[in-house]
UniProtKB/TrEMBL annotation:
<keyword id="KW-0808">Transferase</keyword>
<keyword id="KW-0489">Methyltransferase</keyword>
<dbReference type="GO" id="GO:0009307">
    <property type="term" value="P:DNA restriction-modification system"/>
</dbReference>
<dbReference type="InterPro" id="IPR017985">
    <property type="entry name" value="MeTrfase_CN4_CS"/>
</dbReference>
<comment type="similarity">
    <text>Belongs to the N(4)/N(6)-methyltransferase family. N(4) subfamily.</text>
</comment>
<keyword id="KW-0680">Restriction system</keyword>
<keyword id="KW-0238">DNA-binding</keyword>
<dbReference type="Pfam" id="PF01555">
    <property type="entry name" value="N6_N4_Mtase"/>
</dbReference>
<keyword id="KW-0949">S-adenosyl-L-methionine</keyword>
<dbReference type="InterPro" id="IPR001091">
    <property type="entry name" value="RM_Methyltransferase"/>
</dbReference>
<dbReference type="GO" id="GO:0008170">
    <property type="term" value="F:N-methyltransferase activity"/>
</dbReference>
<dbReference type="GO" id="GO:0032259">
    <property type="term" value="P:methylation"/>
</dbReference>
<protein>
    <recommendedName>
        <fullName>Type II methyltransferase</fullName>
        <ecNumber>2.1.1.113</ecNumber>
    </recommendedName>
</protein>
<dbReference type="InterPro" id="IPR029063">
    <property type="entry name" value="SAM-dependent_MTases_sf"/>
</dbReference>
<feature type="domain" description="DNA methylase N-4/N-6">
    <location>
        <begin position="23"/>
        <end position="268"/>
    </location>
</feature>
<dbReference type="GO" id="GO:0015667">
    <property type="term" value="F:site-specific DNA-methyltransferase (cytosine-N4-specific) activity"/>
</dbReference>
<dbReference type="GO" id="GO:0003677">
    <property type="term" value="F:DNA binding"/>
</dbReference>
Length: 351
């Protein structure tokens, strides 16, 4: 099996390089409005944003920033297939503007924008970020009532384009082989994720600190899970805010095609520096999933519970009939092509 992974340098408000209805899944993390590190970027897109911030008008700045993101959401509506899924990782912002501290609810604003475009909202996920400080509040210390809770979570908002789910031909191999294990389903499809950090190891690319600060990178586990949850082998995943390329890396490991759009070509050079490590990473990701499943089997048997089915491709039992056809993939080779990479996949090697 082969997949292709294209990355375009350009403004994601114009995804004309991506055909209409050519993408099955979007997984992305945009710049968060009203987070100060993104002020300059948003002001470059619309100088009125900088004027509003300078004037102490936080609400107008917030709305103007989201107006720029909405131009990207318009493009997502165009390129997604009917029934396709968009997963938007976004955090709210807390900020003092003109002496007034408040929260700016980015997740609510993005939800409203997608609904206006005819997307159906699906249950979302909260994932907890590791805190850098033991302090759990901001404001007046130990004295009530003027302290504020800290924001230690982000949202993964999930939308479907249109009212109908995607349809597949009966017993489609690319769908059944992409199944997840029963215990993975129970863990992944819960609405709060507290275990996403450190579970999968990303490539340690030699990116400089400034590049990392200017990316909206999330842990590899997040896009990898979402891609496994909401797409089948051979589907195409789009990330319009490509950054360090975490979504593309996850798509390579998961056996999906990908498309990315990124303003700064420096990120592409950094990604290319680590491309030779992708086969080993993909193999470790697949083996880790299988090892976790076998640990689950041991725990379940220790509880006196049995299994009715055996996996077709692995020497392990599974809980449900739908899991029998699971066939994990690994990357065997990565070749450079114009605007990206061609990846050769093979069934996961266990030796």
């Amino acid at each position: 099996m082969e997949t292709t992974h294209r990355v375009f340098v350009g403004d994601s408000r114009d995804l004309s390089a991506v055909d209409d209805e050519s993408v099955e899944l979007v997984v992305t993390s945009p710049p968060y409005p009203m987070i100060e590190m993104w002020d300059d970027l948003f002001t470059e897109l619309d100088p009125a944003i900088g004027d509003a911030l300078a004037a102490g008008d936080g609400y107008d700045a917030f709305e103007a920033m989201h107006a720029q993101l909405e131009r990207v959401w318009d493009e997502l509506e165009r390129v997604l297939v009917d029934g396709g899924i968009a997963c938007i990782n976004v955090g709210d912002a807390t900020r003092s503007v003109d002496g007034s501290f408040r929260v700016y609810p980015n997740h609510a604003r993005v939800l409203e924008a997608f609904e206006e475009r005819g997307f159906e909202p699906l249950p979302d996920v909260l994932w907890r970020k590791p805190a850098n400080s033991a302090a759990k509040f901001m404001g007046s210390g130990m004295i009530p009532p003027n302290a504020y809770v800290t924001l230690e979570h982000e949202y993964i908002l999930v939308f479907r384009k249109g009212a109908r789910s995607r349809e597949f031909e009966p017993r489609a191999d690319r769908r059944y082989e992409a199944a997840y294990f029963w215990e993975e389903r129970n863990r992944w499809f819960t609405d709060v994720w507290t275990d996403v950090t450190g579970e999968l190891q990303a490539i340690d690319r030699p990116a400089d600190d400034d590049l990392r600060e200017r990316s909206a990178a999330y842990p590899l586990e997040i896009p990898y899970r979402l891609i496994c949850m909401y797409s089948a082998y051979g589907d195409t995943v789009l990330d319009p805010f490509w950054g360090t390329g975490t979504t593309t890396l996850a798509a390579m490991c998961a056996g999906r095609n990908s498309v990315g759009s990124e303003l700064e070509d420096a990120f592409l050079a950094v990604f290319d520096d680590g491309i030779d490590e992708v086969p080993a990473l993909s193999r470790s990701v697949g083996r880790a999933r299988l090892e976790r499943h076998r640990a689950f089997v041991d725990r379940r048997r220790g509880e006196g519970k049995g299994f009715e089915y055996e996996a077709d491709y692995y020497d392990t039992p599974v809980v449900t009939k739908m899991e029998r056809g699971i066939r994990l993939r690994e990357v065997r080779a990565v070749d450079g092509i114009e605007d990206g990479y061609r990846v050769e996949h093979a069934p996961l090697s266990l030796e």
